[in-house]
Amino acid sequence: LTPMSDLVMLTRGTIDKYMGDAMMAFxxxxxxDPQHARNACRAALEMNKALVPINKALAQRAxxxxxxxxxxxxxxxxNTGEASVGNMGSKQRFAYSALGDTVNLASRLEGQTKAYxxxxxxxxxxxxxxxxxxxxxxxxxxxxxxxxPERIYSLLGDEQDAKQNTFKSWKxxxxxxxxxxxxxxFDGALQKIEDCMQLSEGRINxxxxxxKARILDMxxxxxxxxxxxxxxxxxx
Length: 236
Prior knowledge:
The protein has about 240 residues and is of the alpha/beta class. It is about 50% helix and about 20% strand.
């Protein structure tokens, strides 16, 4: 948690609380930060980089002890929007925190990182403020506890990563795959998934395998003709 906390503070974030092995942080309070969405995304990208030397040290220690190494991974959810920020609690005890639907959705996105096989999931509000970053839309999902669907994206890199021709080719194929999937051209979508897996060099293969399995199920039990492309999540 120490290197993760350093990265939050270096990007002008506020650490809200620690919950076991998890951490909650927010940006743009108590001081205004016009770049809050970008700074939150930069912190997330650096957090996963920070785990590399930590995992190397754990692997070396495990090798010395003759056991399997315990690999640490960080699932991160980011959402942007209005929230209530201030001293929350009771007369006996309170803490400076953030509450609201925006905060709840960020938590739900963190919980969905495992299901989608990605390190960072961001909501549409964050994506609108960080379009120059390397992001890919993954799904239109209705998370538990919310009635309206949310477009979710995988944050894969910064502005420089987004300019790479390899990423541009991957993004074009990925967007084509999503269009075919939502038009219920499932054979075409499956073909595009294979192209995406090659272009991505295996970076989010877990996601592509998940979408492939979903499509195969839909081919067996097709959705209604007026299907809107929304996936309903049954778990947090």
